[in-house]
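Need tokens for this chain, all 51 residues.
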Amino acid sequence: MEWRKSSRSGNATNCVEFRQDLTAVRDSKRPGVSLPVSRDAVRELITKLAR
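Here are the structure tokens for all 51 residues:
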């Protein structure tokens, strides 16, 4: 599964990445560790950040 980070992150390595299917997040500095999340939680986070 592919991981994606914000295009605004540029070449920074201090980022939070989302799995393409939006079911996990990880710290780009520690790619071997991920946190499973629900799609609803990701949508809620994105909605709150976009305000």
